[in-house]
Amino acid sequence: MSEFFDEMRMPEGEVREAYADYDKWFWQQDASWLRKKAKEAEGVFRKTGITFNVYGEDAAEERLIPFDMVPRIIAAREWRSLEKGIEQRVRALNAFMHDIYHKQEILRAGIMPERLIRDNDAFLPEMVGFNPPGGIYTHIVGTDLVRTGPDEFYVLEDNARTPSGVSYMLENRETMMAMFPELFTRVGVRPVQDYPRRLARSLAACAPERCEGRPKLGVLTPGIYNSAFYEHAFLADQMGAELVEGSDLRVVDGKIAMRTTRGWRAVDVLYRRVDDEFLDPLTFNPDSMLGAAGIMDVYRSGGITIANAPGTGIADDKAIYSYMPEIVEFYTGEKPKLKNVETWRCSDEDSLKYVLDNLAELVVKEVHGSGGYGMLIGPAASKKELREFRAKLEANPQGYIAQPTLSLSTVPILTRQGLAPRHVDLRPYVLVSPDKIDLVPGGLTRVALKQGSLVVNSSQGGGTKDTWVLDD
């Protein structure tokens, strides 16, 4: 029996209820036709331009994101449970953000050490005492989940700064519906295609009080060389928003105006995909060419909504993550409905000793790391890698946390030999407005295409697949 939870099949080989209709359909299809369809999907992605850039190598390389056409299927009951846990967590994150930029009651209560905030580069003093429009800090959240059993979901990360990947969720669904329309009449799958409309509506609901008439939306991109530019352009187009770069923005009459084909027009809500450091050269990095000079002054005066709010990156800090169970209980008065992965903070002397003694069995991550970079997967590391990482830990323990190697669940992918299990994670997307927390019924499933691999990031050889949440 496998040590990993198989989301499609029970240990005895029987198909789980959520996959029953799909399984019947799959075995009625010709294997060569299915392989042909997989090639077609690759062609669609290539023609559409769904690629990403790989940095940190000898030369930046543009790659096609591999797509697997076997869907990841989640039962309605399982999704309802996830919804409740994610909504609770997002409420707590927003309350935490408001607190640390105001009274800092969680620090006064001794729940977490002050140094985690004080010494954190993601904490922005410019946000202290400021209330963002509608009181919302995290307008879009991408919560990374992993599964280890029938009802065992863990939160791996809270992506509260600028969660990416939603365009792949939408393109995966569009591709599946185009290739297999009969499947969607056979299996009751909840839609995700209306995400751009829901995003536009949610952002508009967060417009500043000074907004006159229908809120005007903009998407701020670093430009065509950014690895997620395809997504920025896609979302702007789908929302009917203007896609702008920093050079397209200026302060006009106390508001941020964007250059359009009809001249300069005020923008009320800016969905920014530019990091805090580069957002405003007058406030942050003076050398930045990516942001808009003066935007922070306009923001603080109530002239624009920036989504997500500057300073939300502190919630992505992996040391802060380790306190999320306490954060949830402190702000909601409830026990967390979703579990954290057990985490050792290497800044703690006893924890560091444990991590160094068990390095070959643990996953070690940089506190500010992302994308699968800067991490060690102990069981897959060589003696040389373990030795080098040990030196990094000893030199800078506060820069790392460690976690156990999880037994990630598996979902089948299509290979030349047929269906084969591969490890997956899930990033559902949450939209937050003053009166609603809206969870899109699906998300981005990332899959480790290499047999035995636990790393699902596209930059590290992973792919994506469509995520189906079933109707009741």
TrEMBL record:
It comes from the Bacteria. It holds the Pfam family CP_ATPgrasp_2. Residues 71-448 form the Circularly permuted ATP-grasp type domain. PANTHER family: BLR5612 PROTEIN, SLL1039 PROTEIN. This is Circularly permuted ATP-grasp type 2 domain-containing protein.
